[in-house]
Amino acid sequence: MLRVVRLDYRALWWDEGRNIFFARLDWVSAAEISVRSGDTNPPIYRLLLGGWMQLAGASPFSVRLLSVFFGVLAVALLYRLAAELYGERVAAIAAALAAVAPPLVYYSQEAKGYPLVVLAAVWSAWLWLRLHRRLGVARSSALWAWFGIATLLAVGAHYFALLFLFAQNLWTVAWWRDNAAIRARGGRWQHLSKWLGVQALALMPLLVYAWWSVAALMGSSGRAFFGVSVPVFPRLTDVARWGATTTAQWPHPTAHLLNFMRAFGHEIAGGPAAAPAMAAGAGLALAVPLWVGWRDRVASGRFRRANMALWLGAPLLLSAFFSLRFSYYFPRFLIFTLPAVLLLAAAGTERLWRRSRAAPLLLGLLLFGSWAAVLGGHYTDPSDPAEDWRGLAQRFARLQRRGDIAVHSYDWIQGYLHSYLPATAEPDYLFFAGAGPTELERAAGSRSRVWFLDYQTTPFAVGNWPGEWMRMRYGLATSEAFGNAQLTLFVRPLETKIIDESARFANGIGLRWGAIAAVATPGDALAVELIWRAPATPAGAYQVFLHLLDGDGRLQAGRDGGPVNDLRPTVTWQRGERIRSAHALLLPLELLHGEYQLRAGMYSLESGARLLTTEGADSVLLGRVRVSSP
User: Fold this and answer.
1) Same domain, yes or no: 332 and 422
2) CATH number at residue 532
3) Taking a C-beta distance cutoff of 8 angstroms, is the pair 307, 314 a contact?
4) What is the mean pLDDT of residues 561-582?
5) Which stretch of DSSP H or E encloses residue 257?
6) pLDDT at 138
7) Does one domain contain both 207 and 300?
8) Is the per-residue pLDDT at 242 higher than 60?
9) Cβ atoms 106, 272 nearer than 8 A
10) Are residues 273 and 294 in the same domain?
11) What average pLDDT does range 430-455 have in this prediction?
């Protein structure tokens, strides 16, 4: 129940949008686009998410519900593992801890692969236990198959699950070395070979997928053998670029490692939403049963103390040193160690309960009080409003028209729109990261309306080449900010039969256009092409306005902008130069039906005064627009 409470309350965030985006791609396309977007996530969770969306839909609630399913199943499997290790009472405590542990609840409410990693790790540990008890049983082949699937799911949800496999292989090597029965049957090498072979077979699809991505990143850096280009083994810098990160150089590595351990403890005890005090309280409450479980129950249990130490210690130690080499690393990558912590805590709690009721009751009060505060904050935290794209999606759904294309700068933007928009309002897409003008021309050049969606920038920003490309070819009808998101609509000018209208302004600037006679509906966008002629003397600094006026001359819609969307300001005009410039405006959704005038003119950027024509008018009539029902 805790995993479903306010499941869609918080807005989608980057990683969730990215997973939704990749879940809709085929295997090959995903491997290629992962290079363009700097993505390093494996494909298995996304493949499962893609199938899930086909059945349940793509709304935020639906896509997160898959994580809820994995999270609940992980609790059930942890109960089964604990029951086999320490008995039903410990299993009940472990399942209760897992059911309310904030890290597991938190990640079960995100469309990410962490709950699947936890599920696969617990399942794999249980299968390991079964396999190494039933070795030699004729019908154990099904367990080997399930172990291969669990391995594929774990690493296919997050590559750092390889660290769990590393620890698990150490369990196997230790068991294989010390098991006298298997040596007596002459199968000493057979079992280890089978174990490693099943793992390698399960990981093969993921290795191929990752190799394609790295090979695409390295491009022509490979070597040619008999006319065939074969990529060389990637360097650490290649791997860093593949993850859109950098290699790290820490001036104080000891302090960094201590901080890494602190962050890991915070993540495991309280989760990412916990305040430091709440995480410290939960960590203190877990410390005593952890120690008792480690000292008493694990030492006497059927699961070796060394195995539990490797489950926790090997990934943590290797990750700490990894974080010294690469800057992009988070303790949540080790979420698969949390089941071991909960097993130890459950075993210690059960032992303490046998000795005295007071200690486990007090510790439980501290633990569940801290976790309740963490979950209460999580459920009421609306997240950063500047990162909430729901308002943008609602606005886009009302303005979008059939045949539109959405050009976006980040992969997760498309994931957001696919999840937030109804299927009937979804446009075509172009993800332009890593693309060039040729691809943009091929995808958007023939469209009459192009939406540009960007993050923390606008089409007017220096270096934003797609924005500049569209500003040169289209009229900009609207550009609206929704927090850090920017929604811009570019519109191709209306086609006119002939350029037969003209006017001249008092300072010598000339204007020609084709008479406009358009029919539109509220929410449509209109664009016109105006042909300006520079005067014989410098024109000064002027801005162009495009206005829609009703029958009484009242302004109903308008947009101001420099010629060619500010790419050719009037102060740059050369004597007698002709400048073709597209200008556009958006018709309000609440615009009443009727006939309107479309007028254009210029005003001084210094004084704000309108530039008069030689006939004394402060604007020119471009044509008329009839607004009717959609």
Assistant:
1) no
2) 2.60.40.10
3) no
4) 95
5) helix 253-269
6) 42
7) yes
8) no
9) yes
10) yes
11) 89
513 and 555, same domain (yes or no): yes
Please give the Cα distance from 91 to 604 (Å, whole number).
78
> Has residue 221 been placed in a domain?
no
210 with 161, same domain? yes
Q: What are phi and psi of 225, to 5 degrees?
A: -125, 115
Q: What does the block give as tokens for 124? A: 């794999």
Please state, in angstroms and rounded to a whole number, the distance separating the CA atoms of residues 523 and 276: 49
**22-57 pLDDT per residue, tens:** 999 988 788 778 877 778 788 999 999 999 999 999
Q: Which two tokens stand for residue 449?
A: 């309306």
Contact 5, 184 (CB under 8 A): no
CB neighbour class for 612 (10 Å; exposed up to 12, middle 13-18, buried from 19): middle
CA–CA–CA angle 506, 509, 514 (5° rounding): 115
Residue type for 153, please? L
Residues 485 and 541 both lie in one domain: no
Q: Indicate the residue among 329, 361, 380 that finishes a domain.
A: 380
Instruction: Count how many domains the chain has.
Output: 3
Is the pLDDT score of 5 beyond 90?
A: yes
Handedness of CA 592, 596, 602, 603 (dihedral sign): negative
pLDDT in tens, 468-510: 999 999 999 999 999 999 999 999 998 776 778 899 999 999 9
d(CA 102, CA 536): 72
Instruction: Name the percent of the chain in helix, strand, coil, to the closest 5.
Output: 55, 15, 30
Dihedral sign for Cα atoms in the order 406, 411, 413, 417 = positive
> Which of 365, 380, 395 is the C-terminal boundary of a domain?
380
Edge-to-edge strands of the sheet including 485-491? 428-431, 405-408, 449-455, 485-491, 475-482
What is the spatial distance between Cα 512 and Cα 466, in angstroms, rounded to a whole number? Answer: 28
Q: d(Cα 443, Cα 432) in Å, to the nearest integer? A: 10
Tens of pLDDT, residue by residue over 287-305, are 999 999 888 766 555 577 8
Q: Would you state the pLDDT for residue 499?
A: 76
Residue 226 is given by DSSP the state: T
Q: Given this model, what pLDDT does residue 220 score? A: 43
Contacts of 372 (CB under 8 A, 6+ apart): none
Question: With contact defined as beta carbons under 8 Å apart, do 426 and 417 qualify?
Answer: yes
Please enumerate in sequence order all residues whose Cβ is within 8 A of that of 209, keeping only pairs 6 or more positions apart, or say none: 27, 30, 31, 42, 43
Residue type, 586: L
Q: What is the pLDDT at residue 223?
A: 52
Let me know whether 521 and 558 are in one domain. yes
Query: pLDDT at position 219, please?
Result: 54
| 106's tokens | 């938190």
Note whether residue 289 is domain-resident. yes
Q: What is the pLDDT of residues 511-567, one digit of tens each?
A: 999 988 999 999 999 999 999 999 998 888 999 999 999 999 999 999 999 999 999
Print the domain residue range for 390.
Answer: 386-491
Classify residue 529: in a domain, yes or no. Answer: yes
Residue 254 and residue 150 share a domain: yes
Residue 302, in any domain of the structure: yes
SS (H, E, C) 585-605: EECCCCCCCEEEEEEEEEEEC
- Using alpha carbons, select from 525, 533, 504, 527 the residue that is nearest to residue 514: 527
At 472 the pLDDT is: 94
